[in-house]
């Protein structure tokens, strides 16, 4: 920083005289002032220090107790600090992150739990779309049938999307499961969206809940708690779906990404700005689905059976409710390899370019501020003059990440180790950057 501190001293200077400069130049000025023989000009006293013109406003001299001065690079400007533009850019990025933490994440994490009681007399249809998921369905279907909800009000619909395994034979073992078999998909249409459309048309009830075949409800209260969200009143209910904990860094990173994504779409919706949901734990009314003609606006897009539909129904005026209680979560098994997770995230992120402009700006500002912070911080590692402010800002951000994300993790019961959060945060945003570059260069996707 180049900060210099000069000691306390007593000097005699002309009243209101402007003094600055080196110690040597100052001593000369003080000697002349002490002698009582100031150099007079037509305007008064004149002297030079640091290139400044000293103009005396009075020939009277006073004793001044001079405080220590702190200067940064410019010795003539006490108490001034000069940082490189990169430090100010770093500070701006941190302030943006503080805004998201203070306005969205922290209040959402600290909000009161949803009421424990509510109306439980509304009929509900639960829809599961599956493609060659016999093993997973053998685990899921019994848990859906065991939900603590009146059997006469609960309809289970299994949509078999062109499976070649024994999915249909498995479904026939459960008399209460309504099977919808899809044997082919019309050319050019997204297979899952087409299959879901047939399942929704077959549903008998207005309230629809959705989950995936590789998920399980966290408790037997899942249906009861999720359907209460419709009583808001709301036409759209957003739930949270977590991943089970397994050893290894990849599993921790997947769970962190799920936590951060959930914190965004749940807290934004809680603030009245819903933009997406996850098909593993989602609810909407059949009326809302029909109001936007289902998946018509993106029926040829492979991804987006959840988030793009949310975009459409919100634009049509649907009201959204958030149900984030742990008993209303669903649980999934995380991908076991980096390649599988890479392909999964490419599918998920590919739908983002069809979001409304306001949602893209809101999300882009959050992601961009984090990426900017890491990028600038890496660049400043090669500037020794900026190490002190860089370290200060980095420690402040680390404290913010640990404090806020740990509170979110407790709220959503993610069970992530607090000590891992800074490393997971850095890894996630660089991974996100790589995914974005990959989608920009190659938009082709793989599906089941």
From TrEMBL:
A Pfam match: Glycos_transf_2
Transmembrane feature ranges: 86-106, 363-382, 420-441
UniProt keywords, alphabetically: Cell membrane, Glycosyltransferase, Membrane, Transferase, Transmembrane, Transmembrane helix
InterPro entries: Glyco_trans_2-like, Nucleotide-diphossugar_trans
Molecular functions per Gene Ontology: glycosyltransferase activity
GO cellular component: plasma membrane
Domain annotation Glycosyltransferase 2-like: ranges: 125-248
Superkingdom field: Bacteria
Localization annotation: Cell membrane
PANTHER family membership: GLYCOSYLTRANSFERASE (PTHR43646), GLYCOSYLTRANSFERASE 2-LIKE DOMAIN-CONTAINING PROTEIN (PTHR43646:SF2)
Protein name (record): Glycosyltransferase 2-like domain-containing protein
Species this protein is from: Hymenobacter amundsenii
